[in-house]
Amino acid sequence: MTAAALAIRDLRKRYDGTEVVAGVSFELRRGECFGLLGPNGAGKTTTLRLALGLSTPDGGTIELAGKPVPASARIARGAVGVVPQFDNLDPDFTVAENILVYGRYFGLADDAIRARTPALLEFAGLSGRAGARIQTLSGGMKRRLTLARALVNDPQIMFLDEPTTGLDPQARHLIWERLRQLLAEGKTILLTTHFMEEAERLCHRLAIMDHGRIIATGTPQELIETLIEPDVVEVHGEGVHEWMEREKPALGCRMELSGETAFCYASDPARILASLATKPQLRYLHRPANLEDVFLKITGRELRD
Fold first, then answer.
1. Paired strand residues for 177
2. Which residues does residue 216 pair with via DSSP β-bridges, in sequence order?
3. Residue closest to 190 by CA, chosen among 163, 159, 216
4. pTM of the model
5. Shared domain check, 88 and 131
6. Position 302 in a domain
7. CA triple 134-140-142, angle to 5 deg
8. Which of 11, 126, 177, 279 is the most buried (most CB within 10 A)?
9. Would residue 20 count as lying in a domain?
10. Are residues 60 and 95 in the same domain?
11. Which domain holds residue 15?
12. How many angstroms separate the CA atoms of 256 and 300, rounded?
């Protein structure tokens, strides 16, 4: 048995003749936050479902919380808290009743669940809302309740599938704060997200998936340092297309056009900035490269549905 919280080796899954998970391998170390990033359809959610034993793999091995999956998936899930991509709170129950019913799935006694509920609601910033109906909660409150509910069995491993999608910045930052608190307490987190800032802030390591395969792994800083030029200049304004076509050969840097913005990637941006100094009609932003630049470079800018 491995000491990892989750160990996946050569995982494969087909749907309708298409291999949506194609030989994925990674380990989730205890006490870390590991991110799975990728465009829509990359295979992230399917990988999570396979790891939890909710789908049967076509190949490969999974070990979760020291147990083989899917053979012992039910036992393994007892050590896991799950925040799904979409809220599945029961609208017929109050806030406290949602936690109570969920806790019963783990075989917890009602008295034990009720004893834990005030601390869980305080953690989620929902103190005083125990008797509230789900329909009265904001989107941010619902996501925080889903997170609190996932902690009812005091899991050591958390699976979070896009936990902040659709939230405003204030709600997103509050959930980030709570996740950092869980990590400080020794919890282990597997996170899927579309927010590159979220991955940079929370993840110790991450993997970028596309078309069912892992195409890059490392710490956020390692990926930025090894896979992308260090400087980015974003240029927009009247005539940006013509400027890019005219200057591209002389500037000697990688350039991409996305809508009305030219992205210039360079190890030394001096020539780009000198050219722009003579073009007052163009506006620009000079910044260091980030994880989103890496993501777009290796997965492309085309829209995924």
1. none
2. 208
3. 159
4. 0.91
5. yes
6. no
7. 30
8. 11
9. yes
10. yes
11. 6-219
12. 11
Tell me the CA end-to-end span of the chain in Å, nearest whole number: 39
Residues 148 and 239 in one domain: no
Furthest-apart CA atoms within the chain: distance in Å: 73
Number of domains in the chain: 2
Show which of 219, 249, 278 is a domain's final residue: 219
Answer yes or no: is 304 within a domain: no
- Mean pLDDT score of the chain: 94
Q: What are phi and psi of 79, to 5 degrees?
A: -100, 10
Q: What is the pLDDT of residues 37-77, one digit of tens each?
A: 999 889 999 999 999 999 999 999 999 999 999 999 999 99
